């Protein structure tokens, strides 16, 4: 992987969009993730800071901009530093 890039499944796991990296890979392979408006077709899709990721999970859809790639899976507060929400507040 090129410097400044990270596998999509790994980033989704670090950012806590999936409980396990395997589930993150399944989310991508099932067609529920887009990167910069294009459907990601492989868990190994490379993402970089500034990319826009859309995740269509079971009960919600998240539209986020990647702020950092992360080095480990930390707690929720740490995970939230990896992205900025772009969707309007729901409610």
From TrEMBL:
What InterPro entries does the database record attribute to this sequence? S4_RNA-bd, S4_RNA-bd_sf
The signal sequence is: none
Q: Which UniProt keywords apply?
A: RNA-binding
Q: Which Gene3D superfamilies match?
A: RNA-binding S4 domain
What is the superkingdom listed in this entry's lineage?
Bacteria
Coiled coil (UniProt feature) = none
**CDD domains the UniProt entry points to:** S4
Q: Where is the RNA-binding S4 domain?
A: 6-71
Indicate what this protein is called per its UniProt record.
Answer: S4 domain-containing protein
Q: Which organism is it from?
A: Methylobacterium adhaesivum
């Amino acid at each position: 992987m090129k410097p400044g890039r990270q596998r999509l499944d790994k980033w989704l796991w670090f950012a806590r969009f999936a409980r396990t990296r395997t589930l993150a890979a399944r989310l991508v392979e099932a067609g529920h993730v887009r990167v910069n408006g294009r459907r990601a077709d492989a868990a190994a899709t490379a993402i970089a800071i500034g990319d826009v990721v859309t995740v269509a999970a079971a009960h919600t859809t998240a539209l986020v901009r990647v702020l950092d790639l992360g080095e480990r899976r930390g707690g929720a507060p740490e995970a939230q530093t990896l992205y900025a929400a772009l969707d309007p507040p729901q409610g």
